[in-house]
Write a structure and sequence with these properties.
The chain is α/β, with parallel strands linked by helices. It contains 24 helices and 27 strands. The strands form eight sheets. A six-stranded parallel sheet has the order 7-6-5-4-1-12. A six-stranded mixed sheet has the order 13-18-17-16-14-15, with helices on both faces. β9 and β10 form a beta hairpin. α1 runs antiparallel to α2, α9 packs antiparallel against α19 and α20 packs across α24. The radius of gyration is 33 Å and the shape is globular. The chain starts with a helix and ends with a strand. The N terminus is likely disordered.
């Protein structure tokens, strides 16, 4: 406001005041005279009473404008509009959440707790039930019918283009009374949609490489966020202790520490240091918790463990992702633990996850897991009871459990009846809103379409996929040094159902990516050799080409349809005619290399006895064939290590390295030991361990236990070794495992090189859950082993006095 305008306002104020009192004060006379002079108009004080009433009106208007202009001048730009706190980007997130909650109706709140399917609901075309067609149009009239003005919690199974996501988001915000954005959620286990295809999680685990796990999470997140996706349903942190279970391939293995470390790295990569970026997303560890040890090995079956095993084993794979990685999503599992369905268990979601671990994100039900409270577990008498029980127990959002109107009406009715507290409802709603605020969706809800062209299948992401495939190659047997094969071989037979296809595993389409097969990789590695192929369907034909070869490479294993979610097996033998094919080819007397692509450990005892070389490749992604061929011919020295035990037979199950000392292993009809132990893997070079030192912290201190060991490459090739540290408490107040992994390090050594590997083990990592239900580090003797597998023999003892 200028000087003249300010002076005029003072005049109007004085005149208005005098009009009310009926007396002209000296200030009014002086100001009125001054204004007459300043405006170069002849204006006498005698006009004063004539303008009285009009001046009051003018004054009020002028005063309001003046105050507004002064506020504008002194207020930050983002707060110049008198907007609600929840719309103020600079306000603390918790203040925004609480402010928004106070403004929402009950119906608007429960809407935030519902997940909507996208591709089949509000676009005009879709390629399948989970994908909108690339040229699909958003149908606003259907959205209006579906959502009205209550907003949207989350949208799933859409896989939209950036432009489609923006169109939907704009509509949602414009048609929500409070302008609340939607949360786009999609699958991205080892690759997002049609982007870079990474090796399956079981491969990523076999690398024992934290950095690769973080890079993989970051790459997948960047490709997802570039299309408008805000949250991905990964990683899977179940412990794979039942190999008949089809979802073993989705896990990081059987060990809680290894799974926890890789899960933490993946979450840190996906979420970054700030969710409000163009390349980070909410990570959602799943399936919380204990899902990987189902009764009979069948998906969603009961899990029979007590609280000590739950806390000491099953939850340890999840804990780092939440305590250290601050994961903002989690998926509640289908099953029951000791008779209590997970989605009705406040111990898991309220006590442990939120109170003990400080979780601030939201809990999403697995698809149909809340409904199972009603129609499978039968702990709820109606859909309404199941819906409200889940929210009471700490779940925050349903996943296609009940029809939207049934679920939302149930929560509204329960709140009004008093069976669902406002505290529980607001906890759930606030958790969803908090995630949306942290993602920046209230302030920058749209995605830049140009991001997708830069992030989609970028060279950096493809390089991570290839590196992961290479580092996951796990050599199980190499009698006589058959591998690496000579590149001067003239005739090579490549045989088997997995030889001319890139096996990706579940949650990926094998049509995506480069899908380099083993056959393609071999032909590119030895272009001068004659490479003949047979699928092995006709064993006689396969044997014929084997007889003409210098060496046979057999590609066997599993595929989608017998491995993956819902594909559990009652035996772990090679499927179909593969065992007969294997025996017939070996009978030719030709050197045979068996390459496995599979999603779980297989009972390959016959192969271990009769085949000189076995390479476990798991499901190695779009560069899998290249990585396999490079390993076969020596361009890649294998250093993958098993993260799950290979049983000799299903009769040994469950079998895992860290069983308790009371576990018996004697069978009258089977060998005592498993086929291949946890942590095992061979190399084209050799390593020697020595000079193990364990340094105890000072008594009563909280310092770490320091462990150091010398590792030398005693062979002729450079290579990687995975140095593994195991610990056992020699005498304890409760029974503990025979040994447990406590740290690991993947190192690279040139021939003749020695490195000192040092581990710092926090004392709390040695804690046990005692008989009184408390975590405690007990004093006494501890044994430490360091080596290249769970059967490491180099040991040292430590007397700990915490």
């Amino acid at each position: 406001m200028g000087e003249v305008e300010s002076r005029n306002l003072q005049i109007e104020s004085a005149i208005c005041l005098d009009h009310v009192t009926g007396v002209m004060n000296p200030t009014a006379r002086t100001l009125a005279a001054g204004r007459s002079h300043e405006s170069s108009r002849t204006r006498s004080v005698g006009v004063y009473f004539w303008v009285g009433f009009g001046s009051c009106v003018t004054f009020v208007v002028s005063l309001l404008l003046f105050l507004f202009s002064q506020a504008q001048a002194k207020t930050p730009h983002s707060l110049k509009a008198t907007s609600p706190v929840y719309k103020q980007a600079e306000a603390p997130v918790e203040s925004r959440v609480q402010d928004l909650l106070t403004r929402m109706t009950l119906e608007e709140k429960v809407r935030q707790l519902d997940l909507y399917s996208g591709a089949t609901a509000f676009v005009d075309k879709h390629t399948d039930s989970t994908h909108a067609a690339p040229d699909a149009e958003f149908l606003s009239e259907k959205a209006q019918t579906l959502w009205g003005n209550l907003g949207v919690g989350g949208i799933h199974d859409l896989n939209a283009t950036p432009e489609q996501a923006n169109a939907i988001q704009k509509w949602v915000i414009a048609h929500s009374r409070l302008g609340i954005p939607a949360l786009f959620i999609e699958e991205a286990l080892h690759g997002f949609d049609k982007g870079t295809v990474f090796p399956a999680p079981i491969n990523l685990a076999a690398t024992w490489n934290r950095s690769l796990a973080q890079q993989t999470g970051a790459a997948i997140a960047a490709e997802a966020r570039a299309t408008g996706v805000d949250m991905i349903l990964a990683p899977v942190l179940d412990l794979a202790r039942e190999p008949r279970w089809g979802r073993v391939e989705e896990d990081f293995g059987e060990d809680p520490y290894l799974s926890g470390q890789l899960g933490l790295a993946y979450v840190c990569g996906a979420q970054g240091t700030n969710l409000n970026t163009d390349h980070s997303v909410v990570a959602e560890p799943k399936h919380f918790a204990g899902h990987g040890s189902p009764e009979g090995g069948t998906n969603t079956s009961p899990v029979h463990i007590g609280e000590r095993e739950l806390r000491s084993v099953m939850l340890k794979s999840f804990e780092p992702a939440f305590r250290e990685g601050h994961a903002m999503g989690v998926m509640a599992a289908y099953h029951e633990i000791d008779g209590i369905p997970v989605t009705a268990d406040p111990l898991l979601f309220k006590n442990i996850l939120r109170q003990e671990w400080g979780f601030q994100g939201f809990v999403l039900s697995d698809l149909g897991a809340i409904r199972r409270l009603y129609d499978v577990h039968r702990v709820a008498a109606s859909p309404k009871a199941a819906s409200c029980l889940a929210i009471q127990s700490g779940v925050d959002m349903q996943f296609y459990d009940f029809p939207h109107d049934v679920f939302q009406r149930a929560l509204v009715d329960c709140v009004r009846e008093g069976s669902l507290s406002k505290t529980d409802l607001d906890r759930a709603v606030g958790s969803v809103l908090r995630v949306k605020f942290l993602l920046g969706l209230f302030d920058s809800p749209l995605v830049d379409p140009s991001l997708n062209t830069r992030a989609y299948r970028s060279q950096d992401h493809l390089a991570v996929s290839l590196k992961s495939a290479r580092e996951s190659m796990t050599l199980l047997k190499n009698d006589g040094g058959l591998l690496p094969l000579s590149k001067s071989l003239q005739h090579i037979a490549v045989i088997g159902p997995n030889a001319d296809v890139a096996r990706y595993g579940d949650y990926e389409q094998e049509s995506n990516g480069l899908h380099i097969s083993m056959l393609q990789g071999i032909r590119e590695s030895v272009p001068k050799a004659v490479v003949n192929f047979d699928s092995g369907k006709d064993i006689t034909a396969a044997v014929a080409i084997a007889k003409d070869a210098d060496v046979v490479v057999l590609g066997l294993g599993e595929w989608q349809g017998i491995s993956g979610e819902g594909f559990d097996r009652s035996n772990l033998d090679l499927p179909g005619n593969e065992q007969q094919l294997l025996e017939a080819v070996v009978a030719t007397g030709k050197p045979v290399v068996l390459v496995l692509q599979n999603g779980r450990p297989l009972t390959i005892g016959w192969a271990e006895d009769h085949v000189p070389a076995i390479l476990e490749a798991w499901y190695p992604g779009e560069f899998g064939g290249q990585a396999i061929a490079e390993t076969l011919f020596g361009d890649n020295n294998p250093a993958g290590r098993l993260t799950i035990t290979f049983p000799r037979s299903v009769g040994q199950l469950p079998v895992f390295y860290n069983s308790h000392t009371s576990r018996g292993h004697k069978y009258v009809d089977d060998a005592r030991k498993p086929l291949f132990p946890f942590g095992f893997g061979l190399s084209y070079t050799t390593f020697l361990y020595g000079t193990l030192k364990v340094q105890a912290p000072a008594p009563g201190s909280h310092a770490h236990v320091q462990v150091s060991v010398n590792v030398s490459n005693t062979g002729e090739k450079e290579g990687d070794e995975v140095v593994q540290l195991y610990v056992r408490q020699d005498v304890s107040s409760v029974s503990t495992p025979s040994r447990s992994l406590k740290d690991f390090s993947r190192i690279h050594l040139k021939p003749g090189e020695t490195k000192v590997v040092t581990f710092q083990v926090p004392q709390m990592q040695l804690a046990l859950w005692n008989a009184n239900g408390k975590w405690t580090v007990e004093p006494g003797s501890y044994t430490f082993w360091v080596g290249g597998s769970s059967e490491a023999s180099l040991e040292a003892k430590l007397l700990l006095q915490p």
